[in-house]
Design brief:
By secondary structure, this protein is α/β, with parallel strands linked by helices. Helix content is about 35%, strand content about 20%. The chain binds 5'-O-[(S)-ethoxy(hydroxy)phosphoryl]adenosine.
Length: about 650
């Protein structure tokens, strides 16, 4: 962000106190801050016993002796699925709706109670066991937004098999490398899912990932959703509904160690290889449930909660499946896109299902703003009591629009900062306590210690910027990178001593509020999805016509950042393109190539074919300069460039385009 942008943010002085009515019913109180401050570990121990049912109580809260490898709730044993499902049924809430599922085609809905969920997770746990899945085996899940996604995840948790969910927008190639990395023998997928009014295939992508070459997969379970035609490999493929029908209806869940891995989730880092972030059962479940309660303010007996994220991302893991369900909440799950079949779809769902809590992303809010307030104004949104935002910085203008147009000026907004790695919300207003400030995530929640530091690791003064770090271990912290402990240490714990470096830049305002500004490393944030510049560069370079590529995230009004690629062609390709005037076709071909290598979500918005890339004398690509070009700014300081005329060539080329 430019300096001007920074100082503008610091002039944001509006605050909004929660109404008395909201405060009176809020789960989170000021006392939590005092309790956590007085005895942090004691606080988490008490919360762990308040929010979770343990089969065996823990005897030590935290072991940090092998930092940065933490262990929480030592000696404790529990089952995540029992906490998220069974115990609600046992408590007499079996008839409560767990999921109001809304398919993308209109009138395609299903309500699933906790009792029904209980039956399905037991059958699915037995079906997986029948396929040979045992404690510790990683199961790959590649599903659309259908209830079976939650069932599959919970069934894995039930038998102690860490799941590895891959977002449905990833390609066969991306899926193949994740299957290999985790060594999954079972893949759970669907024939397809509805996207923008059309069925789109998922099984075919899994087939592609398993074609040719060695892979560890022995079984593919296929949920029938769209009923489209699918290829079938006898002996490997089984319909999910048939497997569940054939399986025993009851499954006795056993408890696992608090540190037993619950899931792996791949996320982009600064190199071309995605990182398998993994989380442990006890601490993760605790912090997702606790934040669902005190930040989202879920009252399971009365609220209808809706998180619009996909289960393929961490937000779907923590705030569709584990957090809300551990509380026994009722929620909406929606399969499709916000503009299908019309741009009021979200608001129609809020009205029909009487949604009280809505958790969505800034990119969606900015899109709704662009479509105009007349659309939500056609619907009755008076059921809403709290709004949440996650995934990227929300600009004060979008925040105010969200508050006024969607929240009718009465709903507190929680701008929640966290990451795949942190597992659960870390910095956010506590809605019954905090006076909110548009655009700022504000303060660490009770129990979490996070600060903004300078280059030397010293906390910055109010009014200054720096790096966001977490200074104490927290229950839902990642336990590492699957199979690569060194990379874990190097990535998060080497920049500052004894502090977790989140990779984000942040600023403290004069009132001590934290403003998260975005990534300071080579990770982009496109519509709230993490993309690595290196990963897209390596996809581009794998194309036979490409010699070199540099990718930057350029500011974009709707998506936050957009992917812009600068590509140098191989000699032969240049000649060919010149002769045949094929520049445009080639750009289309390269975009398609990236979609094949990673997935459609990684397609660059723009690809510029250039003759040179700006580099420092040590050969490092100067992304900052390319960003200036991509954002159509005056090109910045080029004195460290090995050949400063390169930038002139690039900007000239752009103008001629
Ligand atoms: C960004 C998503 C500003 C940040 C939960 C972080 C945010 C990355 C916010 C993690 C927020 C997330 N304000 N930036 N409220 N929430 N981010 O792993 O850059 O997909 O590092 O987790 O999103 O993305 P991830």
């Amino acid at each position: 962000m430019s300096d001007e942008g920074l100082s503008n943010l610091l002039h944001e002085e509006r605050t909004f106190a929660p109404s008395e009515e909201f405060v009176a019913q809020a789960n989170g109180t000021a006392e939590l801050f005092e309790q956590a401050e007085a005895d942090r570990e004691g606080f988490w121990a008490q919360k762990a016993r308040e929010y979770l049912d343990w089969e065996t109580d823990f005897d030590q809260v935290l072991d940090w002796s092998e930092a940065p490898f933490a262990r929480w709730f030592l000696g404790g044993r529990l089952n995540a699925c029992v906490n998220a499902v069974d115990r609600h049924v046992e408590a007499g809430h079996g008839d409560r709706v767990a999921i109001h599922w809304v398919g993308e085609p209109e009138d395609d809905t299903r309500d699933i109670t906790y009792a029904e969920l209980h039956e399905q997770v037991q059958r699915a746990a037995n079906a997986l066991t029948d396929l040979g899945v045992r404690e510790g085996d990683a199961v790959m899940i590649y599903l659309p937004m259908i209830p079976e996604a939650a069932v599959a995840m919970l069934a894995c948790a039930r038998i102690g098999a860490p799941h590895s969910v891959v977002f449905g927008g990833f390609s066969s190639d991306a899926l193949r490398s994740r299957i290999a990395d985790a060594g999954s023998t079972v893949v759970i997928t669907a024939d397809g899912g509805y996207r923008r009014g059309k069925p789109s295939g998922l099984k075919s992508v899994v087939d592609g990932a398993l074609e040719g070459g060695e892979n560890p997969v022995e079984s593919v379970l296929v949920v029938r959703r769209t009923e489209q035609d699918v290829e079938w490999t006898e002996g490997r493929d089984t319909w999910w509904h048939e497997a569940l029908e054939a399986a025993d209806a009851t499954h006795e869940a056993q408890a696992f160690d608090a540190e037993h891995p619950l899931f792996i989730l791949y996320t982009s880092g600064t190199t071309g290889k995605p990182k398998g972030i993994f989380h442990a059962t006890g601490g993760y479940l605790l912090q997702t449930a606790y934040t669902s309660h005190v930040v989202h303010d879920i009252h399971p007996e009365s609220d209808v909660y809706w998180c619009t994220a996909d289960v393929g991302w961490v937000t779907g893991h923590s705030y569709i499946v584990y957090g809300p369900m551990t509380l026994g909440a009722t929620q909406v799950m929606y399969e499709g896109t916000p503009d299908t079949p019309h741009q009021g779809r979200f608001w129609e769902i809020v009205q029909d299902k009487k949604v009280t809590i809505l958790y969505t992303a800034p990119t969606a809010i900015r899109t709704f703003m662009k479509w105009g307030k007349e659309i939500p104004e056609k619907f009755d949104l008076s059921s809403l009591k709290l709004l949440g935002s996650v995934g990227e910085p929300i600009n004060p203008e979008a925040w105010m629009w969200y508050r006024e147009v969607i929240g009718g000026g009465r709903c507190p907004i929680v701008d929640t900062w966290w990451q795949t790695e942190t597992g659960a919300i870390m910095i956010s207003p506590v809605p019954g306590v905090t006076e909110t400030r548009p655009g700022s995530a504000q303060h660490p929640i009770p129990g979490i210690n996070a600060v903004v530091v300078d280059d030397m690791g010293q906390p910055v003064e109010r009014g200054s910027g720096g790096y966001l770090v977490v200074t104490e271990p927290w229950p839902s912290m990642l336990r590492g990178i699957w199979g690569d402990p060194e990379r874990y240490k190097e990535t998060y714990w080497s920049r500052f001593e004894d502090m977790y470096f989140a990779g984000d830049g942040a600023k403290l305002d004069e009132d001590g509020n934290i403003w998260v500004l975005g990534r300071v490393d080579d990770v982009m944030n496109v519509s709230g999805h993490r993309m690595s510049t290196a990963e897209i560069e390596s996809a581009l370079v794998s194309h036979p016509k490409v010699a070199e590529a540099a990718v930057v995230g350029a500011a974009d009004e709707t998506t936050g950042q957009a992917i812009c690629a600068f590509v140098i062609l191989r000699e032969e390709a240049v000649e060919q393109a010149d002769e045949e005037g094929e520049g445009q076709d080639l750009v289309a071909e390269l975009r398609q190539h990236v979609a094949k290598e990673i997935g459609a979500i990684a397609k660059p918005r723009q690809i510029m074919i250039v003759a040179e890339l700006p580099k420092t004398r040590s050969g490092k690509i100067m992304r900052r300069l390319l960003k200036d070009v991509a954002e159509n700014r005056e090109v910045g300081d080029v004195t460290t460039l090995a050949d400063s005329s390169v930038m002139d060539l690039i900007t000239q080329g752009m103008k001629e385009d």
